Amino acid sequence: MSDLPAASLAGVTKRYGDEVALGPIDLDVPANRTTVLLGPSGCGKSTLLRLLNGLIAPDAGAVRVLGAAVTPASVEGLRRRVGYVIQEGGLFPHLTARGNVTLLARWLRRPPAEVDARVVELAALARLPTALLDRHPGELSGGQRQRVALMRALMLDPEMLLLDEPLGALDPMVRAELQRDLRGVFRALGKTVVLVTHDLREARHFGDLVVLLRDGRVAQQGTLAMLEGAPADGFVRDFLGAQTDPPAGP
Amino acid sequence: MRGSWAALLAGCVALGCAPRAVRVGSKNFTEGVILGEVAARACATGGATTEHRRQLGGTAVLWRALRAGEIDVYPEYTGTLAAELLRGVDARDLAGMRRALAREGVAMSAPLGFNNTYALGVPEPLAAARGLRTLGDLRGHPGLALGLSHEFLDRADGWPGLRARYGLPQRDVRGMDHDLAYRALSAGAIQVTDLYTTDAEIAWHHLRVLADDRAYFPEYSAVLLYRADLARRAPGCVRALESLGGSLDAATMIDLNDRVKRRRRTESAVAAAWLEEHRGLRTAVAAEGRAARVWLRTREHIAMVLASLLAAVLCAVPLGVAAARRPRLGALVLGAAGVLQTVPSLALLVLLIPVLGIGAAPAVAALFLYSLLPIVQNTVAGLRGIAPSLRESAEALGLPPSARLRLVELPLALPSILAGVKTAAVINVGTATLGAMVGAGGYGQPILRGIRLDSTATIMEGALPAAALALLTQALFALIERAAVPRPLRGGR
Questions:
Q1: Quick one: which of A43, B119, B295, B465 has the fewest CB in 10 Å?
Q2: Is the distance from CB of A15 to CB of A21 less than 8 angstroms?
Q3: What's the total number of domains in chain B?
Q4: Which residues of A touch B401 (CB under 8 A)?
Q5: In terms of domains, do A1 and A76 share one?
Q6: Cβ atoms of residues B48 and B21 within 8 Å
């Protein structure tokens, strides 16, 4: 890989009380590709994501994002260059869909015409009917809310997109549809994407690169084919095997 | 020369040494208000601009206000001075009392002429038939039934001492409510009751007051207390006040009380009529309709509530924000506001008088303090109730803390904050009626007056608009909520 990584963790450890949630870990996130953080619950994948946009700070080691160290001074500017989507969308219930999407842009006093045009463009990209833009989150379905959350994350055209189990709370039909649409968006934009999931099929669907985590450390990373072809250890084999569909009966 | 005088005068006015109005205060009972009105009107004929702040609560309020210079004159009784204000001075020793008062910067007028103390009364026909004129005369009639107020019956200086002093033989002595005692007298169930020597009821029920020829009851001579500096500031006023000495005997005072209590005249009209008839002093009585009166009280009441509420919102919301962010500070702030809430309102008002004087200021301050807790509490609850995922989303967007507070956290907490402000407002509308005790006016004024005169109509003149204002406040907040809170956050979706 000749490109510089979009983000990197060097010797990072994060503890909650006495418990080590993550690390020590070294990891490079390649630019302009989709990286899937995969692993069972409690493996530290959400912690890793939250370190990348400075919602939490590491106890040891250094986090660099988009060429800069994540520090209290730099974090606010960095967050505006990094979109973030969480499981339930985290939409503000007091604002309409449009209000949610444009909150930061309006606070930054971007020209209203430019903001409006961007909203229309994003609605088309996220396949959200524009008629829904003036509804409040409570009046939208779960899938529609995630589309709005994606639009909000993409509003300022960030260089990197972080998604924490974005499809986790959706029912299977909606999930399949949104999964397809999300992949379309990632391909169309060609941005650096880091997506957290515990679902192997989702990883297969999205991931150029898969990082499988176990107890706060990297168990194995590479393409899914690499992991399946040459699992590094029993855990990797078991994790991949457990989620593979059992063979059909006789 | 004339120019320099004008300059001196202008400078003097600017520095505040222009003569200000003489303020007369009065306690919250009919005789006190009549005497206050007499004093204010007499003072005005002596050339001073006067104002009468009527029914300012009890002895403690008036005494503090006088010494703080909030009022200049108020009617008092020597017995009260001796028992409550100047401990250890005998109520009959006027010279000793004057010396003690002078140390407080207070002067005392000549006694007005009546002694409003405890007495026993007997229906006039019965008294005439049995030849009862003094308390001692009761000795010869052991069969008379006595109905005495509970307090009088129990106090050592009430019935037990009286019976011992005069050697009274009556066996049928019952404790009963004062109003019931008058009915029992009319019905003939009792023949003797205790009363104050200037009660209007004496005229009303045609009672004979038995003379206390052995001077058993303490002396409660009515006097006017005034600030010693008044003699210099308004000498004409002081001369007029002193000239009232000896001019009001008990029969006259009973009559004046009766005119207000039974015949429903205003204290101003009664005082003005007496001054004109007996002292030859003409004073104007402003006629004032009920509508104008209610409108004035409404303005005073709303001003008190609005001022206190506005100040409370400006203080309590930032306090609530700080308290929500720092749990330890939060516990301290909520604890302090909670303690304030437990101070009884009347006590708080009296405590504020030395600092803020009388009038609207202490009332607004007390209402402000009471408003803090509900607003701080609801601000904290509203902010702490925000889902962590929403806080985090706002942070992850890259908004600085101040913008997160303004654009996300406060709007999400708004329904809770508004509910707190509404609670405070409704409580304030009710509590502001107590402001009348310290001269702040408002709906409490007719309520106090109505209680004093036992007039339901007058009480309703304050109570009904106060209730209406409370309902209106509720409705207003429903509108504010509708306008300010986005649909999805409103209660009862």
A1: B295
A2: yes
A3: 3
A4: none
A5: yes
A6: yes
Q: Would you say A48 and A163 are in contact if contact means Cβ atoms under 8 Å apart?
A: no
- In B, which residues are within 8 Å of A53 by CB distance? 396
Q: Same domain, yes or no, for A152 and A165?
A: no
CB B247 within 8 A of CB B279: yes
Chain B interface includes A95 (CB < 8 A):
yes
Interface test with A, best of B383, B390, B393 (most A CBs within 10 A): B393
CA B326 to chain A, closest CA, distance in angstroms equals: 19
Tokens of B109: 């007028």
A233 shares its domain with A171:
yes
Please tell me the distance from the alpha carbon of residue A200 to that of residue A65, in angstroms, as a whole number.
26
**Domain span at B153:** 118-209
Measured between alpha carbons, how far is B328 from B79 in angstroms, rounded to an integer?
52
The 3 state secondary structure assigned to B352-403 is HHHHHCCCHHHHHHHHHHHHHHHHHHHHHHHHHCCCHHHHHHHHHCCCCHHH
User: pLDDT tens-digit profile of B325-346?
Assistant: 888 988 898 999 889 888 888 8
Nearest chain A residue to B493, by CA: A138
Q: Which letter does DSSP use for residue B114 in this model?
A: -
Answer for the pair B421, B365: CB distance below 8 angstroms, yes or no: no
B387, closest residue in chain A (CA to CA): A90
* Cβ B45 vs Cβ B281: under 8 Å: yes
Model confidence over A122-171: pLDDT tens digits?
A: 999 888 999 999 999 999 998 899 999 999 999 999 999 999 988 887 88
Residue B4 lies in a domain: no
Q: Tell me whether residue B375 is in a domain.
A: yes
What are B173's strand-pairing partners?
B146
